[in-house]
Amino acid sequence: MSRRRRKLRRVGRPLSAKPLGGDCRELIVTHKERQERAIRAAVAVANRLGMTSVTPVILKDSNHTSIHLVPFPVVARVVAPRVGQDPSTALSAELSVAEHLARAGAPIVAPTIDVPPGPHLEANETMTLWQFVAHCPAEESDGPVAAEGLREIHSALGSYLGRLPSFEVALDACRRLLQEETALPALATPDKHFLLTEHDRLRRLLGAAAMAPVAIHGDPHLGNVLMTPRGPRWTDWESVCLGPLEWDLACLPESTLAIVPAVNTELLAVLRDLRSVCVAVWCWAEPDRASEKRQAAEYHLRRLRERSRAAASPAAQRRAVGPLQET
To answer: pTM value?
Structure first.
């Protein structure tokens, strides 16, 4: 059944990025000029679609900028422009996945049905439009219930007929950044070499592993979950791909593992470390875009260094070599 456009209505009262209750906190954002460009573009698109006199409220500013177009129940997700890339194709694919999941009744934040969801282009800024839902950010304690929702999403993705890339496409892109001499200028050269060495070591282990690729979210960390009165709602479909379930689970806290049966714990351990390499690289690429970027970059680099030192200890070297360990 097709999803029909509704007559656009205004939300009963203006909403802001202030706490909605509990432990919800206003997100601290950076890069004022970039934000202002995103806001101007979102307001222009809103006006073009008949949403006039909006008050833009930034809900999140990290990889992309999410702007609630108060008083309407619509959020503009403005994508950062990238040299040499046309974001419209990727955003159209993301909307296709999200619309499929919405039709399947999966627990997601759906594209808006009040106006065309996009992609929309305005002044070199590209965006998609999504339904606004009142929410709090997910905390680690929300991991199990978020994982339950992710199981529903995996089930719904199983019937998606569109083409999806392999999860290894993102791994290859990560390695290219590490190899490129002028890339990652904020990352110290020894750290860059260390991450490249770890990446290659882990890819060798991955190549020896038995995997069963299925359609997965691709980037289901808890920052992509909104906790609503109706339960968790997942967002961000730009990384949907074909890969092992363990690649998704590598994003989630250990407490969620009981939710997903038949987890290959050895594969999961390798993919957790490989995920750390990728997050470190992606965050070091733009460490000052948002405060949490630098924090994540430093955390994952430190985590990998500590694990490398622990693995090199005499006690660790005396352990038996397992099926996913190098010999």
So the answer is: 0.85
